[in-house]
Amino acid sequence: MSDAKLAIVTGAARGIGAAVSHRLARDGFVVMAVDRDHGAALSDMAQAMSAAAGHCLAVQGDIADPNLFPALFDRAESLYGGVDVLVNNAGIMVKKPMADIDDEEFDRQIAVNLKGSFNGLREAARRMRNGGRIVSLSSSVAAMRAETYSIYAATKAGIETMTAILAKELRGRSITVNAIAPGATATDLFLTGKSEEAIAAFARLAPLERIGTPDEIAAAIAFLVGPEGGWINGQTIHANGGVI
User: Fold this and answer.
1) List of E strands, 41-104
2) CA proximity to 183, closest of 134, 140, 132
């Protein structure tokens, strides 16, 4: 399988990351599914994907650790010759009024969402095979500037800026660098702690009058990393049903 194309997907054990992993496996990629937590769930998912759709490697690791991505690229290069796709999906969310966010919460949000995504972008810039694809997860709240999402939205705005800049820095290597900014999506990250009334209110924001699904976000990412998405570069795509 040394000629297979390999995709690294972070935050892969559940939600959007799991949907992306399954979709890319069906599209023929070897998937390196990475998650900090949910070790058993990640292993089970990798085994099921390998049996049903294609080869999947489960790796536990924290994207905030600067040693993780070099190790992932080392393993990918030893097994498959290199990395063709990086999906920077892993992230956490602190949702509080700014006055109530303590230093530890601020630092962890920055370490995971912003520095963690940077860690992936940096290693991909150094070592991704020419012709590769990079997609990072932003969020539509970065543009909506909704109350209680201040630090989370700030990290996502930073990801969008790094995306646009790295696309220019990789000139000459035929590597595209884009971001996807989902709106309200039916994942644990969005649903946890919200009442049915709050979820319904989010659904009404979109002209399509519902929240999105992980599979819909995965489909947008699959387009960007596939052959038909090769002319889209340096962009943030808002996949939110028309909220903004």
Assistant:
1) 56-60, 85-88
2) 140
- Please name the residues in contact with 226: beta carbons below 8 A apart, sequence gap of 6 or more: 27
Question: How confident is the model at residue 198, as a pLDDT?
Answer: 86
Question: For the chain, how far is it from start to end, CA to CA, in angstroms?
Answer: 43
152 labelled catalytic: yes
Out of 69, 80, 149, 152, the active site residue is 152
Q: How far is CA 11 from CA 50, 59, 98, 238, 241, in A?
A: 18, 10, 26, 20, 23
CB 160 within 8 A of CB 142: yes
Residue ranges of domains in the chain, CATH in brackets? 6-182+218-239 (3.40.50.720)
Question: Which amino acid is residue 29, in one-letter code?
Answer: F
Amino acid at the residue 185: T
This prediction's pTM: 0.94
**Average pLDDT of adjacent 10-residue blocks, the chain of 244 residues:** 85 95 95 86 78 82 97 97 97 95 97 98 98 98 94 98 98 98 89 86 92 96 97 98 94
Tokens of 68: 């993780």
Torsions phi, psi of 67, nearest 5?
-85, -10
With beta carbons less than 8 A apart as the criterion, state whether 180 and 217 touch: yes
